[in-house]
């Protein structure tokens, strides 16, 4: 019997740094596929901010919490090394939920075949959750119109960078909020954003006013934090706010209070939160919406690749320190 490594959740996350004390790294017998199953050797594994919520003992969330002792959830890419499933053949590359493990068993549900020649880093960076989230949030909920102004927070991240590029492709003026001058330079000079604000600098309101002469029509919220209110107060009448993530509050003892609802009434704002598990059944249609932008070269990406399965344990902290650059993933 062959063995492989997997990482299981040992304790629920409460607050502070994510570290080895939350996990068990174990050697376990590599399973054999039964009828209707495939065995996948994972090659790339996605790390996402949503994982923090999955690791909490929160039964009111949009997705049930993990069970202690369960292999840590994650999306990944791998090669089918053994198959007893009629739809998957040995040697095919597939993408889907696999977990923090070297080998995974699947019944095929939720697996997507990768086209020959498609780069794994591009698949995880664009055609996986980041791209699906950007399309659903901006195009389907935000309903952007050419000539409008879009502000996106977390603009150098895997989702925000695609949101901004989709906005530009739709004819919008796009302003991104980031956490460093390097990230500001990247989204403006490489991705084509019209402007950027480093939220760690001073005079945020004045900076935003200068960059949004026609105010803001669509606000794609990825992060929360003090700049949220600054953006909120500059929304146009009938503006749309798409709430995707609040990473600034995930580790806070007390989340920041929301903006005053009087502005919602005066400006007749539409505010909608969304979570991708509600829309995964629409993935083929979302990819179909996204592909014309990808094929025309309007979507660029950068991948932040960590090496080795165990690097995922400390790697999640990069989301909260702001040190990740692009789509965070692990190469096994």
**Helicity level, as a percent range?**
25-40%
| DSSP strand content | 25-35%
Major sheet summary line: 7 strands, mixed
CATH superfamily of the largest domain: NAD(P)-binding Rossmann-like Domain
Question: How many beta-strand elements?
Answer: 15
Rg over CA atoms: 20 Å
Question: How does this structure look, described?
Answer:
This protein is an alpha/beta fold. It has 2 domains: 3-118 and 302-331, Alpha-Beta Complex (Quinone Oxidoreductase, Chain A, domain 1), CATH 3.90.180; 129-277, Rossmann fold. 29% of the residues lie in helices and 26% in strands. It contains 12 helices and 15 strands. The strands form 3 sheets. Strands 3, 4, 5, 6, 7, 14 and 15 form a 7-stranded mixed sheet that branches. It has a 6-stranded parallel sheet with strand order 10-9-8-11-12-13, with helices on both faces. Strand 9, helix 5 and strand 10 form a beta-alpha-beta unit. The longest helix is centred in the middle third of the chain and has 14 residues, at 129-142. The relative contact order is 0.15. The mean pLDDT is 92.
Lay out the secondary structure:
Layout lengths: L2 E7 L13 E7 L8 E9 L4 H4 L20 E9 L9 E5 L5 E4 L5 E2 L6 H8 L1 H14 L6 E5 L4 H12 L3 E6 L2 H10 L4 E4 L5 H8 L4 E6 L5 H6 L2 E9 L3 H4 L10 H7 L2 E4 L9 H13 L7 E5 L3 H5 L2 H4 L5 E5 L1
Parallel strand pairs: 8-9, 8-11, 9-10, 11-12, 12-13, 14-15
Antiparallel strand pairs: 1-2, 3-4, 3-6, 3-15, 4-5, 5-7
Helix pairs in contact: 2-3, 3-4, 3-10
